[in-house]
Amino acid sequence: MQLKKYTDYGLRVLMYLACQPEQAMTSVRIICEVFDLSANHVNKVVHHLAKLELIDTKRGKNGGFVLAKPLSSIRLDYVIRQLEGDEDWIDCLSPICIALPACKLNGIVEQGKALFYEHLSQFTVADLVSDNKQQLQTIFIQNA
């Protein structure tokens, strides 16, 4: 399994914001420069994170976005589920699989998916930057 680039970008945005001084606004342009990403993609991700109320956005000359919640309250399982979409990992119905009546694959994969999200539920965005914040800040500054 591989996470979508969309989810990857969302996690990068949150990590970047986690390393900024509290209430310090950043912009799509800065995120794009630091991570060498497309502004079109980052705009969509930022909009989605704002809809999820994970970031606050402000338009205008001094606009940008900032974390809306404490880092320790933003769980990774929630972020990844929301950005990935909680779709089935195995689609037995499109097209309909002839093995469906006897197949155990979907059930096994669903159990694995549940374990995956259960594991992620133990971590927050704070855990992504807790002991490497200075190193990340240096990396972000060097790439801006």
TrEMBL record:
Presence of keyword Cell cycle: no
GO CC annotation, single: cytosol
InterPro entries: Tscrpt_reg_Rrf2, WH-like_DNA-bd_sf, WH_DNA-bd_sf
PANTHER family reported for this sequence: HTH-TYPE TRANSCRIPTIONAL REPRESSOR NSRR, WINGED HELIX-TURN-HELIX TRANSCRIPTIONAL REGULATOR, RRF2 FAMILY
Protein name per the record: Transcriptional regulator
UniProt cross-references to SUPFAM superfamilies, sorted A to Z: Winged helix' DNA-binding domain (SSF46785)
Molecular function GO terms recorded: DNA binding; DNA-binding transcription factor activity
Key words of the record: DNA-binding
Stored Pfam families: Rrf2
